[in-house]
Structures are given as C-alpha cells and as structure tokens.
Design a protein that fits this description.
single chain; mainly alpha; 6 helices; globular
C-alpha cells in the first residue's frame, strides 16, 4: 500500500491504484486562471478610475460592475449552451474566471456596511436593494436577450437549410 506521501506525489490512490491525471482539468484550470486575471484586472481598473468618494456615498461603480456581470453571464450561458458550438474551456474562462473575478459580492457587502456605518443608512439600504433586485432584473434581461438571439440563430439556420 502506498504511503500518504506517495499518494500525493505519485497520484496513486490509497489502495495502490494509479490514477490518470486529466489533461482536460488542466486546460479548465488554466482557462479559469486566465479569465480570473483579466476580470480582476478590469474590475480593479474600473474601481480605480471611478472610486466611491466620500464614504457614505452611493457605490455606483461596483453596482454597475455587478449588474453588468449578471447580465453578461446570463447572455453568455444561453449563447454558449444553446447557440454557439463552444469548446469546453469557454464557460470556465468567461463565466467562472472572467465574470467571477470581475463581479464582486464581497466588495458589495463591504461597501454596504461602510455606507451604513458612515451614517447613510438609507443609501446603504437603497444600494443593497438595487444590487439584489437589479442583479435579478439584469440576469432576467440577459436570459431574454440570450433566448431571442438563440431563436434568431435557429431561424437563420433553418432558413439557410431550406434554401440549400
């Protein structure tokens, strides 16, 4: 039987059966890392360009980032799942990596609490409501747009097939 050190270093199971490493996972992990680096960098640049000043003011930049991310993720999922023949790494690259790093629940929470503590309770509550309800609305709009695009693409395909 393999020791714990051998299991970790050789990829063997505790029962001595050697496991094959999956190269597809490596591609998925790389896609997530590349997408995450790009999404995090874009968010950083936007927040740096449009900072929320002073404390207690409405955090428009983070709200826009999160609402935009919810919309784009919904459109992306419909297009990748139903319209475009995408390679398996596209969803992890764009959905998990890029949009996962671009959008930010933690910053939303910190800004809501900071705004509340600055004495702007109404602004904090409005921000929280706008983020949650706006995120749902943005995702719903993205699904509607994505489905419309999917329907248009299907109609175009069937029209081309009818002419051939």
């Amino acid at each position: 039987m393999a020791s714990a050190d051998e299991v970790g270093s050789l990829g063997a199971s505790p029962f001595g059966v050697r496991r094959r490493r999956r190269p597809r996972r490596r591609v998925t992990y790389a896609a997530i890392a590349v997408g995450g680096a790009a999404g995090g960098l874009l968010r950083y640049e936007l927040v740096s360009a449009f900072p929320t000043q002073p404390p207690g003011s409405f955090p428009w930049t983070t709200l826009g980032i999160n609402l935009g991310g919810a919309f784009v993720l919904a459109v992306l999922l419909i297009l990748v799942l139903e319209v475009l023949p995408a390679p398996p790494w596209v969803r992890p690259l764009l959905g998990t990596g890029f949009l996962g790093a671009f959008t930010t629940w933690s910053t939303f929470m910190v800004e809501a609490v900071t705004t509340w503590r600055a004495g702007a309770e109404a602004t904090a509550l409005a921000y929280a409501a706008a983020a949650v309800l706006g995120g749902l609305a943005a995702a719903a709009a993205g699904l509607i747009l994505g489905r419309a695009a999917a329907s248009a693409a299907a109609a175009a395909r069937s029209s081309r097939a009818g002419r051939e």
